[in-house]
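Long-time lurker, finally posting.

We've been working with Cytochrome c oxidase subunit 1 (Roseateles terrae) and I want a structural starting point before designing mutants. I don't trust myself to interpret raw outputs, so I'm hoping someone here can both generate the structure tokens and explain anything notable. Sequence follows.
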Amino acid sequence: MSAVLDHPTGHVHDHHDDHHAPTGWRRWVFATNHKDIGTLYLLFSFTMLMIGGILALCIRAELFQPGLQFFNPEQFNQFTTMHGLIMVFGAIMPAFVGFANWMIPLQIGASDMAFARMNNFSFWLMIPAALMLVGSFFMPGGAPAAGWTLYAPLTLQMGPSMDAGIFAMHILGASSIMGSINIIVTILNMRAPGMTLMKMPMFAWTWLITAYLLIAVMPVLAGAITMTLTDRHFGTSFFTPAGGGDPVMYQHIFWFFGHPEVYIMILPAFGIISQIVPAFARKRLFGYASMVYATASIAILSFIVWAHHMFATGMPVTGQLFFMYATMLIAVPTGVKIFNWLATMWRGSMTFETPMLWAVGFIFVFTMGGFTGLICAVAPIDIQIQDTYYVVAHFHYVLVAGSLYALFAGVYYWGPKWTGVMYSETRGKIHFWGSLIFFNVTFFPMHFLGLAGMPRRYADYPMQFADFNMLASIGAFGFGLMQVYFFVFVVIPMMRGKGAKAPQKPWEAAEGLEWEVPSPAPFHTFENPPKLDVTATRVVG
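Top reply, 14 upvotes:
Generated this for you. Predicted structure of Cytochrome c oxidase subunit 1:
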């Protein structure tokens, strides 16, 4: 049900306040407006996506044929390590924070984020961290080459770039914690009158739960990398066997952070998809309450499954069974979400504009990634496929076809509200179909490579793996080109205002407060909070 506002535009007094908006470079450097900071996050994350993508293409260029073509094995390991770190901490997470900054105040009828200056600080912290990460390639000995998981004892043997990497991770973690506090306080304290928690949009719900996850696990990562730092420079032996330490302990601590981190990267995606599917099926989201509870269940269960990444470390059978069954259990709330989306689409009046294409593509390919995750959860199978390309295929199906597809869906869905212009539907569909096809050409063969025994993070491989690797490399370059196409032919025209003017509500069945403000969303919105119809069962889909 649409919100009932006390004024048709929701920004009654904007004309008095717009002249306070800073202009030029000051508008961005000193930004405290949630929309500007959201834009900065999105541009930063796309830049990092391109850098991480170039590293991925270096990896695939090397693997195009057997033998060493372009890089030595040490450089190759630097590329795999930095690709992972940059994509996870520089591209996917900041992109979702950009969406949160842009959309959460609009969705809950708040005038801005709760802590505007801290919001600015949490963004600008990321710039030195990104420079340290990318700049580590130019340090003596090159970038860290310990894998993105930064396992000991490799991390204890790296050059000075390892310290830069640890410092960068600390700063990024601090940024994440500040952003999360901001999101939690904004959602709990600044909702429009009449918007109870169970009337909030699903995107706001998923981010509320994600923010709690971030606050819980980022200090755990900080602890693990601080112990690594003291082992390297201050004579401790947390992970050094010669001094009585245990490298496997690092894995336990890292994955206690790392598995909730996986859900930090997918829960906001679930929120985006839960907004888009009802809009284009022209139906209410099926099972709203069960979606909220499923999201919370995933977050809670994510804390008890960490050691499924470690079946090959020699844990007792009892431990293997516990983590195996706990991991299978987490598939249940995830399945609830999939079925709720399908039930929302069932007998709906569906149209397939670009956001819906990405949403349906997400459901299809993410579900495939979920099934391979269940296979990895079976301890006896996992021991066979541990650290093979099967695992690479699995997590790229959930992180690229999961997180990234949802981000694209969100850009096409809310982009007209951000920029005030409609994207080109034809170009959007070219971007979708090209990405979908090239993604599967890249990552589907990796399942077979992994089942045949090809290990990950190797710069060379036997001849029997040549054909599938060549296919994967061709797909990877195609996928990379599609993202350049997206930026040049979709994003830049929208940012420049080239295209048909977007109406206030470009999608007829879309629900939510964000569609009650003009397109583009003005600098100040909801200075007088909108009053919601308290008799409504739910305000938004």
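Before you design anything, note these points.
DSSP finds 17 helices and no strands in the chain.
Confidence is low (pLDDT under 50) at residues 1-18, 537-541.
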